[in-house]
Design goal:
The strands form three sheets. A six-stranded parallel beta sheet has the order 8-7-9-10-6-11. Strands 1-3-2 form a three-stranded antiparallel beta sheet. By secondary structure, it is an alpha/beta fold. 43% of the residues lie in helices and 16% in strands. The N and C termini lie far apart (52 Å). It folds into two domains: 109 residues, K Homology domain, type 1 (Ribosomal Protein S8, Chain: A, domain 1); 220 residues, P-loop containing nucleotide triphosphate hydrolases (Rossmann fold, 3-Layer(aba) Sandwich), CATH 3.40.50. α10 links the parallel β9 and β10.
Length: 351
Amino acid sequence: MTEATVGRARREAASERVMTFEDNRLASDLYGQYDQNLALIEQRLGVEASARGNHVTLRGAPDACAGAAEVLDSLYQRLVRGQQISLGDVDGAIRVATELPDHQDILPGLSALAQVSTRKRTVTARTPRQDAYLRALAESDLVFSVGPAGTGKTYLAVAFAASLLERGLVDRLILSRPAVEAGERLGFLPGDMREKVDPYLRPLYDALYDMMPADRVERGLQNGIVEIAPLAFMRGRTLSHAVVILDEAQNCTPMQMKMFLTRLGEGSKMIITGDPSQVDLPSGQKSGLAEATRLLAGVEGISEVAFGEADVVRHPLVQRIVKAYDAAERQARGPDGDSRARPAGGDTDGS
């Protein structure tokens, strides 16, 4: 086949599609600054996207053009609803569009991705697993979320909790984390209880301030509507009409995990997040998260969502870092699956 014949075949296989958006201002927001959103769609989906006014012309393989059109339409509909979109939202929409054929069992479609909204922000699922996570949070009273850093485990949990709190569906938001680095003995640290545990709960604070106005967060902390508590101080309590989040749960012992799970009271939801690959417990100590997910698998009312490296939604380099560490751990385990070495370090950013 000659080069000319190949070129002609490629042109015949390519398609062209023109999309028109009614609102010119929203169309400009859709394209992004200096058309950066369109550039990302071109790069990731292998199409050519040229904008002129409120018209976008897509050229490329038919399937690629259809995917790009679906991405653009779903993002435009968000803008119509008054939401803002970032480059990360564009990346998330592209991820889901390209993975839809392989996830028809868990995804209703790109235009129906799960969302959670507060007065300050609306967050939309950026991967099929995030979509499943948000739906599990809405349907189950106890949800385990496990997986590597950067998959949105903690951020989406806090967003969901803040949404319930703002709508008056719960009375309190309780955030907890095991203070493994201080051995749960916080007395030597200066300040009151909040100041003592702040270093360990900073990722939860960051997500909370991202979802709610700062003054509302501060008032909530002062009047007890938002409570920050280390895991060690949960014993003996019954947590009713609240959303309770336990972050970094891989650093709980089995006894601590059982104690925490049995705090669940009437009208409450409990969300437990952790990364099984980053356990900071003393050598030989079992992780309560691993035991709990094994023992409670299949129990009615309990859901587990397991994220993987493909769900990392931070800087693209983070995904490659997670992949490299996972490969090293698999090699360290050897062909028989026994772990001879474990990568050190804990996730300090809240996943």
